Amino acid sequence: MKKPVAILISGNGSNMECLIKSMDETHPGYPFLVISNNKDAPGLEKAKKLNVPVKYIPNKDFEAKCIDHFRKNKPAVICLAGFMKVLSSEFIKNFDGKIINIHPSLLPKYPGLKTHERVISAKEKLSGCTVHIVNEKIDQGPILGQKKVKVELSDTVKSLQKKILSQEHRLYPEVLKSFLSTKNQFTDV
Fold first, then answer.
1. Which end of the chain is more exposed for a tag (fewer CB within 10 A), N or C?
2. Orientation of helix 42-49 relative to helix 14-22, angle to 10°
3. Which of 27, 103, 132, 169 is catalytic?
4. Would residue 27 show up in a list of annotated catalytic residues for this protein?
5. What Rg value do the Cα atoms of the chain yield, rounded?
6. In this structure, what DSSP letter does residue 82 have?
7. pLDDT truncated to tens, each residue of the chain (189 aa)?
8. DSSP character for 98?
9. What domains lie within the chain, and their CATH numbers?
10. Single pTM value for the model
């Protein structure tokens, strides 16, 4: 039986779109709902066009309404895909081990925001993206997968972001499929 996947977004939804498109007839999951804390998120329209139900919940009610909805509908996993809100420890405890996130750096390096700027400033030779389980410490949960990219001297924040985003679009669907295929829902990598 296919497992329900909830996806939380705040913006464009390019990773969400890749996740949805990856959930074909051979995939162990299906996209049962996309939720955004931004009513103008372009990703909501993308999800609708892909025939996935969408929901907008304002930040002030976001966690309480999500917790209530997810307790009733029991997603197998909650994917954060460009979701720009830090979740409370209460929310995370309610779905412990069932929330995964994609981050645009090779964690544990550069957690948080402005990762590309920090990578370039530090003159790193490699960067990339990481999918990890969400815990109470920002971008510090168990790592499920990573993809690396070379940082060239000519790279700008924009060019590095573009290179990493193309790897995110490959990595996140791979990790989600693996995550849902394992008996214990996840394994540390």
1. N
2. 20
3. 103
4. no
5. 16
6. S
7. 899 999 999 999 999 999 999 999 999 999 999 999 999 999 999 999 999 999 999 999 999 999 999 999 999 999 999 999 999 999 999 999 999 999 999 999 999 999 999 999 999 999 999 999 999 999 999 999 999 999 999 999 999 999 999 999 999 999 999 999 985 443 333
8. -
9. 3-181 (3.40.50.170)
10. 0.93
